[in-house]
Design a protein that fits this description.
The strands form three sheets. The chain has a five-stranded mixed β-sheet. Strands 2-11-5-8-12 form a five-stranded antiparallel β-sheet, sandwiched between helices. A two-stranded antiparallel sheet has the order 3-10. A hairpin with a 2-residue loop joins strand 6 and strand 7 (64-68). The protein has helices at 10-17, 109-113, 132-150, 157-182, 184-203, 207-210, 215-221, 226-237, 241-258, 263-269, 275-286, 290-299; strands spanning 4-7, 26-30, 37-38, 41-44, 47-52, 57-61, 64-68, 72-76, 81-83, 90-91, 95-100, 128-129. It folds into two domains: 4-182, Regulatory protein AraC (Jelly Rolls, Sandwich), CATH 2.60.120.280; 185-299, Orthogonal Bundle (Arc Repressor Mutant, subunit A). The protein is α+β, with helices and mostly antiparallel strands.
Length: 300
């Protein structure tokens, strides 16, 4: 059985690497000051942002593995497992880690908004590969948070630290957006694979056993998290992955109805549990019911 370090608070990880925290809910670690360290496979109950200047580490994260190289940034959230199991080996690291407990965000707008930063749900092989300029921005922000932690605690310190964290998350989002754009050709290839899988789903009649296709199904097939897959499709097409699926289903409904198949038969044939479900989707998407669509066809 794997040895897993339960990181219930920031201090659990800090103690492992030999770092002394200045705040019970926030930890900023400069790896140069604690190296060498032993590997650890972590079960996180905190948020974490990690990057190393020079490292090539075969990390586990979720169900996958990632060759963690220089210039790579990884974001983790409570409930995730990642790292490398302790094998007694000492590794020299340079770079930074920011860990913060969800309680730090209590009562702040970020407490609610942090769920909007979808990169916290990414698998590790969808990590951010930073440019030199982006790397320097993160180092600067890490240093500023550390400087604030060294100051005497007052009633504004937590708000200032949360402000820095939010700024860092916004930069993360900007850099991920840049990564999506620079990989546009690769994303176009992804869209073709998605479209092929979607058509294959119905050609193999998988809807009869699995029901209406979901974003999660295609993300799994393409070895991605649903969030990352959704972001890629949105950046590539300007539309959501779920809407892309709905458009495909609507066209299939129209084709079946136009060929004379009854509404109930079409619904069950395409994987709907009940004809009403199909009719609601059709009306919401098209602005008219399947029955009205059939009448339009007959008038032509």
């Amino acid at each position: 059985m794997s040895k897993i370090l339960k990181v219930k608070n920031v201090g659990d990880y800090s103690r492992w690497v030999g770092h002394v925290d200045l705040h019970p809910l926030v930890s900023i670690i400069n790896y140069e000051e604690v190296s060498p360290v032993r590997h650890c496979l972590n079960n996180y109950s905190v948020y974490g942002i990690f990057f190393h200047h020079e490292a090539t580490i075969d990390l586990t994260y979720g169900c996958g593995k990632y060759d963690y190289r220089e210039g790579t940034l990884i974001c983790v959230a409570p409930g995730q497992i990642g790292g490398k199991e302790d094998n007694g080996e000492l590794v020299t690291l340079t770079g930074w880690a920011l860990l913060f407990h969800p309680d730090l965000l209590h009562g702040t707008p970020l407490e609610k908004n942090i769920k909007n930063y979808s990169f916290f749900d990414y698998r590790v092989n969808e990590a951010l590969h930073m440019t030199n300029e982006e790397h320097d921005i993160f180092v600067s922000l890490m240093q500023q948070i550390r400087d604030e932690l060294h100051k005497k605690h007052d009633e504004l310190q937590d708000a200032i630290i949360v402000g820095y964290i939010e700024l860092m998350l916004n930069f993360c989002q900007r850099f991920y957006n840049r990564q999506f754009i620079t990989r546009k050709l690769e994303n176009s290839d992804l869209l073709m694979k998605f479209d092929g899988l979607l058509r294959d789903y119905y050609e193999r009649n998988m809807q009869l056993t699995l029901g209406i296709p979901t974003v999660q199904y295609f993300a799994d097939k393409l070895c991605m998290s649903a969030n990352y897959f959704g972001d890629l499709i949105k950046k590539t097409t300007g539309d959501t992955a779920s809407n892309y699926i709905r458009e495909h289903i609507i066209q299939r409904i129209k084709n079946e109805l136009a060929s004379g198949v009854g509404i109930s038969q079409v619904a069950y044939k395409l994987g709907f549990d009940y004809p009403q479900h199909m009719s609601r989707l059709f009306k919401k998407h098209c602005g008219y019911t399947p029955t009205e669509y059939i009448e339009q066809i007959r008038k032509k």
